[in-house]
Amino acid sequence: MGLKVVLSKLYAKLVNKQLNNIRKNAVELQQKTFLQLIYQAKNTAFGRAHHFEQISNYDAFKKQVPVRDYEELRPYIERVTAGEENVMWPGKPLYLTKTSGTTSGVKYIPISKESMPGHIDAARNALLSYVYETGNADFLDGKLIFLQGSPVLSKKSGLDTGRLSGIVAHHIPAYLQKNRMPSYNVNCIEDWEQKVDAIIDETINEDMRLISGIPPWCQMYFDRLTAKSDGKKIKDIFPNFKLFVYGGVNYEPYRTRIEESIGFAIDSIETYPASEGFIAFQDSQKNKGLLLQVDSGIFYEFIPVDEFFNNNPTRISLKDIELNKNYALILNTNAGLWGYSLGDTVKFISKNPYKILVTGRIKHFISAFGEHVIGEEVEHSLMSVAKEEGIDVVEFTVAPQVNPAPGELPYHEWFIEFGNEPANMEVFRQKVDKALQKKNIYYFDLIEGNILQPLVIRSLKKDTFINYMRSQGKLGGQNKVPRLANDRKIADELKEYIKIG
To answer: Tell me, what's the pLDDT at 477?
Structure first.
């Protein structure tokens, strides 16, 4: 047992004690965070424009600060990215994170010197919570790999700019740097496929013990490792690999295939990082859910999903949330985001402590006929049947077909890349449709009322989604395939990949 392992177990006890205090005082810590944020930003351009000096409670804040998405905050953010000081937060940002926008290309999200520790500490605490609960810390004596974006930063108005994962790479604690892979030069490779191949060359003979990344891109890494080692399972390539850390997407649709590639059901830690802040992490292997980070410079608000697009939706703080109800997540941060609609939806599964599940994206839904089917529902419907039938689903996306062939009813069209196809696709299709009807009463009513016909499945060729993401210039990194959409932009692109016959 190395010194790092011994020290990590002692440190884990200290951190767990701190986390217990946070778990017990979440609402009070959120109120404290709220008041600190308002006080610190009252003399910024945003604070003056929204009368922060008059705000002493949350009700007053809601009257002064509307909920906005990135596009609506763009006039302020553009002043920040132009190098102006004291716009949304005191001074200038430490970094600008560059991420994909939905309507206007690249988005720039500020990270301040006050908010940067939140990104690092949460990732550290996720690992230390695992160490504390399980006593397993041997991964610290071996190699660790973080499949991430390039750490190369550019300048915009004098501000260091890059992808979040690349920025975080500059803040990895010194005690992990010697263990960390890949090398800096390989990590700087921009082309994802070249990068994965170079990572394989560097790691295939190393003692890899922890692997971290977005599941589909980790799967690509595993597949290519297996191909290069004459079909070996990952457990035979890396016999001491014992911990998988992931985030960015729901792991369940990928779990079966990843565990098959590895060769056993590996311990895993889910994290919920975003450019806007590190929201939550899995703090227990025994209990579901992600521990909300209530003391890291973020004040959270929640809007019931079914009200989000109303003119005056209900807007609540942590103390008023209800369990098992889907909420749109709104952030106010110590990097200067105010009433910021992150675009994600969550639901609470516990108040003691406050734990969430990420259920989807507020804009990723199907409601062409008022059904408002969300990501959580389609993922559960497909994966529950796939598990029951022993079917391997590589990736999928769903879209409405509102203009079917003459004489046909409209339907939901499911584009699925299978690892192994169902023996009877028609039975599989019916089971998935029934599962979705059980999850969504509005969809059930539309099927029963003959407004919609049951869903249609299009089986796709091998590597469809890799090829599609490559064609969009979004292969690897933090990029993800949307699981569902209310339009046919992705669906129409996938037509050429449908298997014939």
So the answer is: 65
